[in-house]
């Protein structure tokens, strides 16, 4: 029977999306470079191996598309997949994009446009993931080891969103092809939040004192590179913090409420759900 191919199916959003879809009685195929043999419908999928595209799409009429991560130029890999998906008769394709366009990454805009040109193509432009405050993300590792957030974003705010709300939004579009959909949704939490505000909420709710260490963009780029990120991606990610500091990324939307029927989780709710992360 037709179903949903979930690329990045073992990741922060994909894993939750698969569970939501299956709970709703929708077949969900988990696509990953290292699929778990115990999963009822796993498939190997690797952006760098186009021979995996066809078998992953076989029999699927919907796709959740997670582009290659840590890349400033994902389009050369995604474009052949989009052509293959169209030939396979995919009727709805939902891509998880970003509300923030990385500097020196012009193909991201073109990639979104190509997805929207697909039959049933939708782009979810998600803001910063609250899950970045959980290990093994470098931000969370630093909080856990040193009790500090190192940032070049100053007091700039971002519409942080819980990956569970992103997954629920995607599920609303993928579970039923009859659901009307726009081609673009900005997916955020309920309000903007700065890193100092995040530190205050974690401290107040868990008792774990978290401070903010203000650093330069260059220092942040060096830290990203030291964590193993490719140089171009590390530099672009650090440059994003300049935009946050200058207020260019302080935007929120009602898309989660519109798609799921309930408001997105607040950061305080997120911290309450994951208090063990900072109290261990």
From TrEMBL:
Gene3D superfamilies: NAD(P)-binding Rossmann-like Domain, UDP-galactose 4-epimerase, domain 1. It comes from Streptomyces anthocyanicus. InterPro entries: Ergot_Alk_Oxidoreductase, NAD(P)-bd_dom, NAD(P)-bd_dom_sf. Pfam families: NAD_binding_10. This is NAD(P)H-binding protein. Residues 8-176 form the NAD(P)-binding domain. It comes from the Bacteria.
